Amino acid sequence: MQKDQRLLDLAALLLKAAEPVSWREIQEQFPEDYGGTGEAAIRKFERDKADLLELGIPVRYAAGDEDLPAGYLIDRDEFYLPDLKLPPEDLALLYLAGSAALAKRDFPYARDLAHALNKLSFAARAPGASEAAALAARHLSAEGEAAPDAVNRVEELSRAIAMKKRVRVAYLGAERRERTERDVDPYGLFQRGGAWFLAGWCHLRKDIRTFHLSRIESLSVNPAAPRTPDFQPRRDFSLAAFATRETWEYAKHAPVRCRVRLDPPVTAEVLASFGPRARVGEEGGATLVEVDATNGEGLLRHVLALGERAELLAPRTLREQARRILATLAEELS
Amino acid sequence: VSAHRRGGKAAPTASAVRKRKAVPARPAAARRPAAPRAAATRPDPRDRLRRVLFLVPYAVRHPGIPVRDLARRCGCSEKELLADLDFLLGVGSPPFAPDDFLDLYVEGDKVYVALHQSFSRPPRFTESEAAALAAAAQALGGEGRERAVKALRDSVPRDRRASFDELVGRIYAGAPPARDSVLGRLQRAIADRRAVRLDYHSASREADSERVVHPYTLAQRFGHWYLYGHDTARGKPLAFRLDRVRECAALPERFEPPTEAELGRSRLFSEQSGDKVRLRLGPSAAPWALSRAGIELVRRTEGGGAVVEVADASVEWGTRFALSLGGDAEVIAPPAARRHFVETVRRTLARYP
Question: Do the chains contact at A56 and B58, CB–CB below 8 Å?
Fold first, then answer.
């Protein structure tokens, strides 16, 4: 019997059964597949059971007691998708966020996301307007066709992250513009400014590094023992903390205290752009922002982008660098 | 045998009228697939299974759903869907009980699936389904996101919840863009089809204005969230960047939803939103800038630089973007954007005597 047929039949058999189904009964129902007495049949069944589990179908073995025989079963309560019992606005959140993410096509676990959105219509009594709004969100968020390569790469990486499999990447460095091959333990994927990055332990640099997905030229997942993890992420690693670092917080040099003056009116957006760790003060009507930078270059660029309303006060070297960049530009432009 | 099985052979032409045909139930061991399938092009059998586990309950709930609509819902082609229906005819576990039957047929281009008791609802979320949805929801934020993530976690089979927790920590789709309260109110208003009054900061005018909007949906573009809805004063649908919505209040007034076709034609930005901003990038800025969303390459220049264009950008945005590249970029067109860049450089330089 074909595998998909066998899996569905097996699920139907166990779902329908009033009590646990013994291994012998299962063998009788699937003589071609699990027949015989050998270990091979049991291993095949165990693999099918694992596949069903991955599909969200919880098959388990019950040891049996005076009332019930020993055997395999699927708890119906554990099988059927329950009503999420969410208020309409939370349901709208799931629909809208999920649809917009799906439209980009290079979202991690995109195929799973599509299944999840489908199932959502069963997990709510009345999705109502949210479902229609979600379709619109999908339409509006689509940015043309994402390159099939990029879509496949995210999909592969998603699996590698979930199964903790090591990957080998050929990576194109940004400034050095050179191609390097390295092994990476993929810890997670994060999005910043509309682009996706991989964070992971780099075996070449012996450190946690980030990789811009569009600069990964090729990728291969360690094919050995696909269900056995190759690594454990470091305990102190937090993807959210890593992803929300400001550019001047990248570890390039020892921390330097930097001061920036902002002329009024300072919008909330500008103030927020210095991140949650910035210290904000006031001096003669202007706003003073102080941050500790471990990548001064990042702060310099950020301040330059704010234009004439922002001025780097300290450290002196960074201020001098800002002046030099602007002077060179002004000269070229004249 | 008390099982009922009826099925029209699924032909790939949707217009063909199919008759109901009784398919006798056979013991599992004797069943064979209807036609041998090419092994090389055969996708992962689990994919089909996942699709079918959604397809059956969905078709049961929507009797007579057109093949095309069902295929779209399942995210597959019509041909694949018809093959799935064919596949379903061969499924059913022995021994057949009187209450367990699958009545499945395609008539005209409409699909009918009568109750198949075991698969009346789809299975719970797998940990990766729930985690992907949770990651997307966390990036949109709103005060409901904690509740939503918890509900998702609870709808994963019990012994997969630890995997769910771990996986959620492995995807970070971005920080929520706006203050939670605004977002929560917008979501509620969209779900209730209720008009909202926005206090909106327009970046091009550097001014706040009050708008009454029928909120249709939220969408993401170039890393930003937008509210898309009908601006009642301007009489047309517009996009509002979420991080510029200062305040938002739901009004008692309800609105008629736009049709799916209207929404299908809508765009986040209107075509005539001005010229594209054109920049010249040096060799160190070019690779970095080109890996960003929304930056179009016009041509490569000598030594590894590039000329690029950005659509839907204001002159202010062009200047900001060029300066953020640390002196390795300049705005070259259109003239207004060029002027703005040059003047900003001069005025900023004046701060560093």
Answer: no
